[in-house]
């Protein structure tokens, strides 16, 4: 299991941030050529970012290219295919056909099979097509929520608890789980609001997201903490597995731990918790 608790965006035009990220403990990095880069800096940012892909050690390094309907998209994908990041992050993916076009462009650009597609889902159409997007390709491994664009398109307001966005978040989560893909939550814009940020991480985790996308180094530590299993959860997972093993040895398919029923499905959850804990240790 590959931990994706935290994925930090870095503007591709910001040399200082790109340098600083070499020492930041985010699980994944998203070198951004889209929203955070002004039009007249797109080409220099593309060159810089593609040259930096190998500079961040073990972490998963991805490149966010410009959207399919922009003048920069084709050149971004060609350059990314050659640079060989862990994934290209493509904004505003709206259909299976979009995914197929990205896949074809990567193949034509000579991308290695190791370079995956992370599709950003951030429009009303994408919410309604989430399953076909997620299922469109084996190369597509991760869905990434774009909650700023989604709120804009919905004419929704940002409110604590994100009630206006919950329908879209749920549809994308259902699509990710139905197709066996990883899914990352959207960004939290107020980089000074630590409490609000942590509450949103917790909400994302409780919903079932695998991790969250971030915009500032200060968001990494709380995000990694919230999305990692706690010592109590690890201990509980071990107890669940052990109680079920004992029950099975006695010919029973059900056990209890602290008065709660344990069946095979709870064991699968416990195994997932332990797998993530081990991946984080290792
Ligand atoms: C949000 C920011 C503009 C805040 O910038 P600033 O006020 O300059 O931050 P600080 O002074 O607190 O920075 C402290 C140090 O940290 C470095 N830094 C800041 N941000 C990053 C980063 N993202 N990665 C790496 N390093 C970073 C600064 O350089 C300072 O370093 P030092 O000088 O050594 O102390 C800024 O944080 C920022 O630009 N964030 C990223 C914005 C971004 O990428 N936006 C696009 C992605 S989000 C998106 O597109 C949403 C999605 O599509 C949707 O629809 O929802
Ligand atoms: Mg967006």
Automatic annotation (TrEMBL):
Domain HpcH/HpaI aldolase/citrate lyase stretches: 5-217
Cofactor names: Mg(2+)
Keyword line: Lyase, Magnesium, Metal-binding
Annotated signal peptide: none
Domain of life: Bacteria
Record-listed substrate binding positions: 64, 122
Record InterPro entries: Aldolase/citrate-lyase_domain, Citrate_lyase_beta/mcl1/mcl2, Pyrv/PenolPyrv_kinase-like_dom, Pyrv_kinase-like_dom_sf
Residues that coordinate or bind Mg(2+): 122, 149
Gene Ontology process terms (BP): oxaloacetate metabolic process
Pfam families named in the record: HpcH_HpaI
GO molecular function: lyase activity; magnesium ion binding
PANTHER family membership: CITRATE LYASE SUBUNIT BETA (PTHR32308:SF10), LYASE BETA SUBUNIT, PUTATIVE (AFU_ORTHOLOGUE AFUA_4G13030)-RELATED (PTHR32308)
Protein's UniProt name: CoA ester lyase
Organism of provenance: Amycolatopsis alkalitolerans
